[in-house]
Write a structure and sequence with these properties.
The protein contains no helices and eleven strands. Strand 7 and strand 8 form a beta hairpin. It is about 0% helix and about 50% strand. It is mainly β. Strands 2, 4, 5, 6, 9, 10 and 11 form a seven-stranded mixed sheet that branches. It has a four-stranded antiparallel sheet with strand order 1-3-8-7, with no helix packed on it.
Length: about 130
């Protein structure tokens, strides 16, 4: 089992930036993917992006492509989500997740991810 702890959420004005962190522990990571999801009030949890830990290849939802960027620090076993040009519709609780997922085809599927963090609130004001 992997333990995940998110940090970095907060309140920001539209057009601003935030960086979220997700620190992982508990397992070796070479075969893992790590991802970000978000859930707005009254809506389903949705895929934001992911990174294959071994290769560093990243994947993004269309809604955040070009604005958000995922990076990782192997030494710290930490994943980051840099969010730029934030919009009010980006307001949500952001969750990080980890899992041994064979194909990016399954990244958007919540049951594919075996471990989840507790979530961190991001609020973007108009």
């Amino acid at each position: 089992q992997v333990q995940l702890v998110e940090s970095g959420g907060g309140l920001v004005q539209a057009g601003g930036s935030l960086r979220l962190s997700c620190a992982a522990s508990g397992r070796t990571f070479s075969s893992y993917a790590m991802g970000w999801f978000r859930q707005a009030p009254g809506k389903e949890r949705e895929f934001v992006g992911a990174v294959r830990w071994g290769s560093g290849i990243t994947y993004y939802a269309d809604s955040v492509k070009g604005r958000f960027a995922i990076s990782r620090d192997n030494a710290k076993i930490t994943m980051y989500l840099q969010m730029n040009s934030l919009k009010p519709e980006d307001t949500a609780v952001y969750f990080c997740a980890a899992g041994e997922i064979a194909s990016p085809y399954y990244f958007g599927s919540i049951p594919s991810w075996g471990s989840w963090g507790q979530g961190t609130q991001v609020t973007v004001s108009a």
